[in-house]
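Suppose you are handed only these lines of text.
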Amino acid sequence: MDYKEIIAKFADKPGGLIESYHALLKEFSYLPEEAIVEAAKVFKMSTAEAYGVATFYSMFSVKSRGKYVIRICESAPCHIAGAAEVVAAMEKELGIKMGESTADGRFTLEFTECVGQCQATPVITVNGKPYLDVNAAKIPAILAECK
Ligand code: FES
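From them, the structure of the protein bound to FE2/S2 (inorganic) cluster can be written out as follows.
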């Protein structure tokens, strides 16, 4: 589905802009600039306002991201449990640093705040799906699941 079709689905709904951004995120992993311009037209606001909403919420990204967005919790309990080792393993496996995307457009690495799974730290999420009790040795298998 292209971005125009996605946005059109929410045109008449209350809160449609945010809903459409969520749907766009699901499809593209980020909010492409042309989609924000289209959303501004559909929801009858200025491009600056539509862009402002896109950049206000941390769950939206306007930067191109990989198909799989892997986020690691950097809050204290995960940090103490060894998140740094997991970060090092992910960076080594993918050959990129945190905040970067792989050249093939498959993976992006990001930090996140606590995702509410502190009972089993460290925690990473892959496109929002949590993986608990992660350690460096588990990283290759988790990445292999991302086809
Ligand atoms: S501190 Fe990492 S999930 Fe809560």
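What can we learn from it? The longest strand covers residues 68-73. The chain has a mean pLDDT of 94.
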